[in-house]
Every structure is written in C-alpha cells, then in structure tokens.
C-alpha cells in the first residue's frame, strides 16, 4: 500500500535490535514530533529494564533487592506485575527469574553477584511487589531478566504515545515484536527460523500486536541461526523443541510473553492462549508449522 | 478450541532462484541532517562525505557523522548527531539492506545502490514492509557509535 503523504518511517538501534516506527497523520511536523517522543519512550523502557546496565531498575534489583526493598519506576513495576500474573497463569512456564539459567547458558552475561548459575524453579514466588512501587526478593539467589516481556511493553508504550499525539495510523516494530493501530491492514512477513533469508508465511494484521520468538541470527556475520534465547524454567538444560513461535494479542507485552510459553509448552499452551483471546503459530524443529484454528484466515503460507 | 491446524514446511535446502533481499530506505543524508539539527542553517563538511558541522547564526550547534557497517549479508548506513560537547544527540538508521545468496561486500552488489535516494526507491521485495522472525542484533551499529564517540567525541569541539 502506498504511504500517505504525511507518513514518516524511521529506524533506530534500541533494545539490542532495530526499532522501526511508521506513523501517519494530518500534519507532518506533528507526526515527526510524535515519532520522536515514541522513540524516547522506547529508550526509557530500555534504560529502566536492561539486564546489562547495572544502573537500570533490573540491575539494581538483582544487586540489592535480596538485602533491602528497592523502589523502582512505575513502568518497571507495571511490567513486573504483568510478568508475575503470566507466571501464575502459565503454571510457572513464563518466568522472569530464569536469569541465572540464561547466564549459565551464555545467553546473558555474568555479573559481579552471581550466587548461583542455576535457575531455581519457582524462584518467581520469591519476588515481592510492595506498596509504592517497591520490590524485594526473599531469596539471595533470585535474579530477574525482563527480556522476555519488556520489548513488547516498549512497543505498547511507543504506540500509546503516537495515539495520544494524534497519529491516525502507525506501526512499531522492535525486531519482530510489533503492534499497529489504525484502519490499515498490515502484512507481516515471518522469516524461516533456520533460513532467515526466506519467508515462511505472511500474516495480515489490523489494530493488534504480534510478537515472534525464534532462533537468533546476525546477517552481519552469517545466515546461520543460533538456538533461541529461551530456557524452560522447569528443566535444568537450555533446550527447546521448537524453532519459532508467533503470537497475536491485544497488547504486545502479552504477545511477547506468550511466545515464550508457546515455545516451551507448544500446543499445551492452548488454554492460556484462549484466556488472553490470542492466536498462535508454532514452528517445530521438525519443520512442521501449526496454527490455532481461529487464525488460519489471516496466515498465508509462502510457496 | 479444536485442534491446531498442521502444515509441513518445504525443505530448507530448496532455495528460491532469486536471492532474497530485504531493503529499507529511511532518510537521505540531507534529510537526516535537517532532522537532527532543525535550527541549523548551514552544514559545512569537515571531512568530505563523512563529517559535517551544523551551524545556526554563525554558531556551531553540533556535528553530524555518517557511517556504514558492512557485514556478510547486510549493510547499514547510519548517522550519529553529536552535541557541541561531544555527546550523542541522536542515532538514526538511513538505509538498511539484507541480501542472501551473495555477499553484500561484492562491488557489483553495492554498485546497484549508488545514487539511489528516497526519490528513486528500489523495487526489490517492495512488498515486504514489515518483517518479523529471528531477532536481529544491532550490536555492530552500537559498536560503531561507540567508535565514533571515542574518535570524535572530544576532538570535534
């Protein structure tokens, strides 16, 4: 579809990937400043929730929350609330306390205070969300990583800023976690998890969010993909039977978190997907592709 | 809910005849300059094609640096706007290209893009506007920004 005359499309390196924002409105300067504010919102989430930055809320929590309660930004608190809710609903499959396991698997870097490098199943239960956006950890071994949910949240934040600022049509894509609003139907191409130069399918999307978790790659070096950055909190080894999961949901944060559950539980996540009125697509390592029945009209397989 | 619907994907080894390309052009250097420093009335080259000084009313308001990262299957043009104190004001991606089946480093592959601007967009996989799947790392650009900051952060004052 041809871009509207007052349409703006920009990309910046944020959240460890490329964040792209396309927005259209009636007056170009307003659209530009809205896009600027939306990138700003993504950058704020990045600064608050980065595992790598010792000064982020996550960095401070992992260092101090087992000793004393740590006040965090309202946005970080909001994401933690959603993460704990998802942990409860998924019977522990979605778990932000898997950071030690991710560190052991080499997916996250080691920090100064790594008491243990094994994720304790149920460690999320040791996270206390207290009055006034204060967070404490009951156990010294708890370390969290919001990498499985914060990117989706950042996309939601960017989109709500664009909406507030009068943009009529927009899409925000943070390295595959994306959301759009407006009347336009967007076509999203999903890469083949083992051959990222190829497209597996196209998905039609209107006014919704879509998140994908899959094997990782960097065409800067190679087309070879590496295993997904996902571990099963119930298992002790980093292993995943699936290559990729794509989820559609009302918010990108929920879609983002659900992809982790679908990657691990596969079709066992059906009930949870229904609870969130979401749809899912799963690519198994056996190259089989499965789609929830409600979604088949919007998913078109590539030839 | 009834059962999930199952499909078999074609075997990866059967590659398509056309080498897949995903390309996006966001901004020209001139557009990026204006948006990084809207108040600037003049951009003077400090180093041709690479570094510009942004000026407004005879005062320097910042610096604009153009850079490119070229990998095996990818090249990215980006720009870093620096404040007069040498801090990063903005990092913007100008062009993004992925190509498989041939290395982007080859001169013939790069040559097809010379002189292309927003006004003359290329028609390669023009239907792919939104792509998802394996998450791309932006490390090479972040490292490039760090390099620029280390090289010019204190020198351009």
Written description of the protein model:
- The complex is a heterodimer of chains A (303) and B (157).
- With 303 residues, chain A is of the alpha+beta class.
- Among the domains of chain A are: 57-137, T-fold (Orthogonal Bundle); 185-301, ApbE-like domains (T-fold).
- Helix content of chain A is 29%, strand content 27%.
- Chain A contains seven helices and 14 strands.
- Chain A has an eight-stranded antiparallel β-sheet with strand order 1-2-6-7-10-11-12-13, with helices on one face. A three-stranded antiparallel β-sheet of chain A has the order 3-5-4, with helices on one face.
- In chain A, helix 3 (74-89) packs parallel to helix 6 (252-265) and helix 5 runs antiparallel to helix 6 (252-265).
- The longest helix of chain A is centred in the first third of the chain and has 22 residues, at 28-49.
- Chain B has 157 residues and is an alpha+beta fold.
- Chain B has one domain (21-121, 136-152).
- Chain B has three helices and eight strands, in the order ββαβββββαβα.
- Chain B has helices spanning 29-36, 107-111, 139-152; strands at residues 5-8, 21-25, 42-47, 51-56, 59-70, 74-82, 88-99, 130-132.
- Chain B has a six-stranded antiparallel β-sheet with strand order 2-7-6-5-4-3, sandwiched between helices.
- The longest helix of chain B is centred in the C-terminal third of the chain and has 14 residues, at 139-152.
- The radius of gyration of chain B is 20 Å and the shape is elongated.
- At the A-B interface, strand 1, strand 2, strand 8, strand 9 and strand 10 of A face strand 1, strand 7, strand 8 and helix 3 of B.
């Amino acid at each position: 579809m041809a871009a509207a005359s007052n349409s703006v499309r920009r990309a910046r390196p944020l959240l460890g990937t490329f964040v792209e924002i396309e927005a259209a409105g009636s007056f170009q300067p307003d659209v530009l400043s809205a896009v600027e504010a939306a990138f700003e919102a993504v950058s704020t989430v990045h600064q608050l929730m980065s595992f790598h930055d010792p000064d982020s809320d996550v960095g401070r929590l992992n260092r101090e929350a087992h000793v004393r309660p740590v006040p965090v930004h309202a946005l970080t608190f909001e994401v933690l609330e959603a993460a704990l809710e998802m942990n409860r609903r998924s019977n522990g499959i979605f778990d932000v306390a898997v950071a030690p396991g991710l560190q052991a698997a080499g997916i996250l870097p080691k920090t100064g205070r790594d008491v243990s490098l094994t994720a304790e199943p149920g460690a999320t239960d040791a996270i206390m969300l207290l009055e006034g956006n204060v967070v404490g950890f009951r156990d010294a071994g708890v370390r969290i990583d919001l990498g499985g949910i914060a990117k989706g949240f950042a996309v939601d934040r960017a989109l709500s800023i664009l909406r507030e600022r009068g943009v009529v049509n927009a899409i925000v894509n943070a390295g595959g976690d994306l959301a759009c609003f407006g009347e336009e139907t967007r076509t999203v191409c999903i890469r083949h998890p083992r051959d990222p130069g190829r497209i597996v399918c196209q998905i039609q999307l209107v006014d919704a969010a879509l998140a994908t978790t899959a094997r990782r790659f960097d065409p800067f070096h190679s087309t070879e993909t590496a295993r997904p950055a996902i571990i099963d909190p119930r298992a002790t080894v980093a292993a995943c039977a699936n290559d990729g999961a794509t989820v559609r949901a009302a918010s990108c944060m929920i879609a983002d978190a659900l992809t982790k559950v679908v990657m691990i539980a596969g079709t066992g996540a059906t009930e949870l997907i229904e609870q969130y009125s979401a749809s899912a697509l799963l690519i198994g390592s056996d190259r089989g592709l499965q789609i929830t029945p409600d979604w088949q009209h919007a998913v078109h397989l590539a030839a | 809910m009834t059962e999930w619907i199952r499909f078999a994907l074609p075997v990866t080894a059967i590659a398509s005849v056309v080498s897949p390309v995903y390309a996006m052009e966001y901004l020209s250097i001139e557009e990026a300059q204006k948006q990084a420093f809207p108040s600037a009335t003049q951009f003077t080259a400090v180093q041709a094609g690479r570094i510009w000084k942004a000026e407004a009313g005879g005062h320097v308001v910042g610096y604009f640096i153009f850079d490119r990262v070229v990998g095996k299957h990818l090249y990215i043009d980006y720009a870093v706007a620096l404040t007069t104190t040498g801090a990063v004001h903005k990092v913007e991606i100008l062009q993004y290209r992925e190509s498989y089946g041939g290395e982007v480093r080859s001169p013939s592959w790069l040559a097809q893009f010379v002189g292309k601007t927003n006004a003359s967009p290329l028609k390669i996989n023009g239907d792919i506007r939104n792509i998802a799947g394996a998450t791309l790392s932006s490390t090479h650009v972040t490292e490039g920004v760090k390099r620029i900051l280390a090289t010019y952060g204190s020198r351009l004052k």
